[in-house]
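Inputs:
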Amino acid sequence: MPRTLAQKLWDAHVVRSAEGEPDLLFVDLHLVHEVTSPQAFEGLRLSGRRVRRPDLTVATMDHNVPTRGGIRAADELSRKQMDVLTENCRREGIPLHQIGSRRQGIVHVIGPELGLTQPGMLIVCGDSHTSTHGAFGALAFGIGTSEVEVVLATQCLPQKRQGDLAVNVSGDLPLGVTAKDIVLGLIGRTGTSAGQGHLVEYRGPTIRSLSMEGRMTVCNMSIEWGAKAGMVAPDETTFEYLEGRPHAPRGPMWEKALEYWRSLATDQDAAFDGVIDLDAGKLEPHVTWGTTPGQVVPVTGRVPSPRSETDERALRYMDLLPGTALADIAIDRVFIGSCTNARLEDLRAAASVIQGRHVHPKVRAMVVPGSTSVKRAAEDEGLDAVFKAAGFEWRNAGCSMCLGMNPDILAPGERCASTSNRNFEGRQGSGGRTHLMSPPMAAAAALTGHLVDVRELL
Amino acid sequence: MEAVKQVAGRLAPLDLADVDTDQIIPKQFLKRIERTGYGPFLFYDWRARGNFVLDRPEYSGASVLNFGCGSSREHAPWALRDFGFRAIIAPSFADIFRANCYKTGLLAVTLPESQVRHLIDLVSEDPSVEVTVDLEAQQVRGDGFSYRFEIDAFARECLLGGLDEIALVEKHDADIAGYEKNRAKWLPTVQ
Ligand code: SF4
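Outputs:
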């Protein structure tokens, strides 16, 4: 029977399957961070269990970490959460990239970077944006804390089989339009629940032409349109990215792995439960105006008239009037960061817009690299100097202002151009207002002090 | 997991769609390392603005809540439970949110929009209305109505039996060990 990529990945991880029960799947890599794990470790301890495969488990600190001033800059509860993670990892023999260490960073940035994320794997983490790793042709999804405990104890996870969807993207991306606009455009068209309960494969020539970074951006936001996981079949771009990374296979193992990885594509006649077609050639840079990622329009557009109570609530929260041109919306803050858009390529794209220009005097802008390695690499090529000369703050790696769990937050009423993935009420700080967009778009907004079409600056 | 068979009690109406976990339990309260104590922070930002429905005296002590949506934050169901809710009813839930609810023994029940609307109207008019969410019979019922709901059979069984998921998986240890032996050699390990 012809199978889709998602079905192949699923089948390869079934430990046991029985009628009327969820499949039992084996987890190849379990990523752990400080926020969703303490209760799981506590549960293990109370039931006298140990971590079954510490060698398949990796921990990092990202959500709570201050992006300057080190751990001492964290509030007491955050510090406690980080200390507890350190202690749990020490006790169970789990490698931990803690704050201040060379490889610390956002969990979804360091997995790929270290070569731990590979095609064909099943990867889970107590975090919604685990879908990012699907960019490598892996099956990757977020789990809750109880499930974290199950995986720690058994390295397995009972899961109900899901249906699969295809998103076909064709057409050349116009200048100034990025992977972020593909996924924002998609969510704008389909809404925030079209992917509900599905494994999604992003396909087509446009996806093939994206770098690994771009593919990660698209897969990252799968959860934002309800999908359980997003993935892209591995190809030469994937292999090239992986070769030579610290945990990538070497020598004869690399050859064997390659052979298997090349089989990870949807078979010719395999059927999807649904297919969505998207013409990237017609895409414009997108910006959200509301409080869900689905409330999004091209930057050349206007704030739409509300079509539901949810829209009205969003307009009130965002303090916007229908009909306002997006380009007339002034901003106070700019955040370039998060697991969606804080890899080296993202920082390069933003820097190329900023080069030789200056941040608007009314704007406070910051760049937060996704990992300590990204930060180092960016500094090696002088990107930090470009940002700093323009008036950006250059921070240490972490989730930072993607969510207000660390000292980086918006003040009530502040409006932010952000490269992150969620614009929910209060996400970046209580009362803060978030507009999601690509790194070049956020860079452009920093320079002009309002939402703006980056193409005007290119 | 605690066994749940049925929940009977008063109903609190939260007449909003697209309720996300950032609203249910704002991130500044995710720093606890325990599973308990989140109740006071439930819907914190909305309650801080005053006159929030859950703070109205007529709905205090309700054990069933009406609403929708979510992310992977299991702290959200913990907060709902801690606040006193044992069941929630909505036209839809994000999958991950529903799964997390079951894991904490919180009954997340979906009913068609018209029936949810009926419940909200009913309780808005008379806050003393009581409903029963019956998992065994798969029914939400009250005075003069009874609505059937669907639920995944396996999830239902686990909830009814209060089954420990880890213990269930551990029963298949031989299968797991067998699978482990045959994993490809190139797969990464971190030690
Ligand atoms: S950067 Fe944002 S979305 Fe990504 S893991 Fe951190 S908090 Fe979650």
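Remarks. Chain B has one domain: 6-163. Residues 6-163 of chain B form a domain with the Aconitase; domain 4 fold (CATH 3.20.19.10).
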